[in-house]
Amino acid sequence: MNTQTESKMQNKLARDYTYNTAEMVQLACMVYRLHGYKKTSEAQHWAQDENDHVYSNKELMQKYVKDGFSINEKDVKRAESIKQHFQGLIFSAIGGFKNNYEENLFKLMNQENVHPKQFGYLASLPHTLNIQEKREEQKEHDQEIADKSKFVGIKGNRKNFDVVIDSVRFIQSRGFYVITMLEGKNVIKTFNSNDGDNEWMKQFLTEGNKIKFSARVKDHSVNKFTDGEETIIHRISKKVIK
Questions:
Q1: φ/ψ bin of 185: left (φ > 0), alpha (ψ from -120 to 50), beta (otherwise)
Q2: Tell me, what's the pLDDT at 6?
Q3: Are 8 and 99 found together in one domain?
Q4: For the stretch 141-159, what's the b/e string if a residue is b when 16 or more beta carbons lie within 10 angstroms of its beta carbon?
Q5: Cβ pair 220, 229 in contact under 8 A
Q6: Cβ–Cβ contacts within 10 Å for residue 66, how many?
Q7: How far from the centroid of its chain's Cα atoms is residue 10's Cα?
């Protein structure tokens, strides 16, 4: 066999070689645990030094299968959680799959082996599950505080507030922050487009901060998701009450 023929056969083997799907989900968990998450579009390979390259999780998985890897018990358990979670979501969809991604993922999770070109599907799963778990935790927390909340102040009047910043969420599509505060057990909310460049606003954008200020009660509103009573405020004084 000449060198050219041998090289072609090796390339074919490289293209056709597949890996155990369950093990690759475990590898995806290991990569996420060690490196966090980078999408393919966030990868950077312009640096001369390979150590300065930024690899996507898909690329890191491809590197590890070539160089070797070692997973731990946490990765195994996390991979099993991923399998149960996503299969449950897909099976619960009434009337078929919601999109091509779900259909392809379902097929992939139920086949014995996976090709490295398909690692992108698996690479994102630990990050996706992590986000969904945080959303569920936040949802439970929001419901818990909503169940205890009552309106405070009089609409149209100013009031002194003594609060703890409970959560700060940036609504990308709207370009503003939703800042949820607690005064005792009562939910206070405000909406702000300030990016936190000044020291005053940073106090509102730091969860857990305790702060006193004066503000106008804009509205008393019942949250459509939690049925909780929320006091909406605006025109917050920049002079913090000591």
A1: alpha
A2: 40
A3: yes
A4: ebeebbeebebbbeeeeeb
A5: yes
A6: 10
A7: 40
Q: Can you tell me the distance from the alpha carbon of 76 to that of 30, in angstroms, rounded to the nearest whole number?
A: 9
Please calculate the CA angle 86-105-118 and round it to the nearest 5 degrees: 130
**Confidence label for 122 from pLDDT (cuts 50, 70 and 90):** very high
Cα–Cα distance for residue pair 46/53, rounded to 1 Å:
7
**Maximum C-alpha span of the chain:** 90
- Does residue 139 lie in a domain region? no
Considering the domain architecture, whether residues 7 and 41 belong to the same structural domain is answered as yes
Lowest-confidence range among 15-19, 96-100, 183-187? Answer: 96-100
Query: How big is the chain, counted in residues?
Result: 242
Judge if 69 and 43 occupy the same domain: yes
176-183 vs 186-192, strand pairing mode: antiparallel
* Within-domain flag for 239: no
Give the residue numbers spanning the domain of 186. 148-234
Residues 154 and 97 in one domain: no
Residues 152 and 100 in one domain: no
Looking at the fold, whether 128 and 166 belong to one and the same domain comes out as no
pTM: predicted TM-score of the whole model, two decimal places: 0.72
Q: CATH number of the domain that 175 lies in?
A: 2.40.50.140
What is the token pair recorded at 211?
A: 């702060």
